[in-house]
Amino acid sequence: MLPMNAFWSLFQALLGLGVEPKDLTFLQVSLRGIIIFLATLITVRIGHKRSLAQRTPFDAVLLVILASVLSRAVNGSAPFFATIGGGVVLVVLHRVFAHLAYRSHAFGILVKGKPDVIVRDGECNFDMMRRNHVSVHDLEEDMRLNAHSDDLPGIRVARVERSGDISFIKK
Questions:
Q1: Domains along the chain?
Q2: What pLDDT, on the 0 to 100 scale, is given for residue 50?
Q3: Cα(21)–Cα(33) distance, rounded to whole angstroms?
């Protein structure tokens, strides 16, 4: 029993568990950062590779919130182990929502959105462009970069995808 108590005491001292955030040392913050890095890596791998791709706002939200929550464990402003657990819960929730979105198109639209057509047969849909905050200049730039064209009449369809990227199908 004594060796376990000694190990736990050493662990607490190394990580500064129970110490006020302002009193954490460089070594304690560094060790916390290493542990959070490894725990986050494992957690995100449990989640899925896709969450790192930031393909939709749905995926980006996970990364922003996860980073915010886990940073609190590094700087000591939240309980260390409870914060790691909260991060795991967020990743599991993201995974459950992704599964539900895969199973249900309606749920997928709810959490991921849907693409909007901004050009059809070379004609701009200015209402949809305005709704998506896409200017003519933005459209032209993306058309040059992604469709390798500057010929709007040569575009059959352009969509603002759920990721926010603009995709083009030429005539």
A1: 19-110 (no CATH), 115-170 (3.30.240.20)
A2: 61
A3: 14
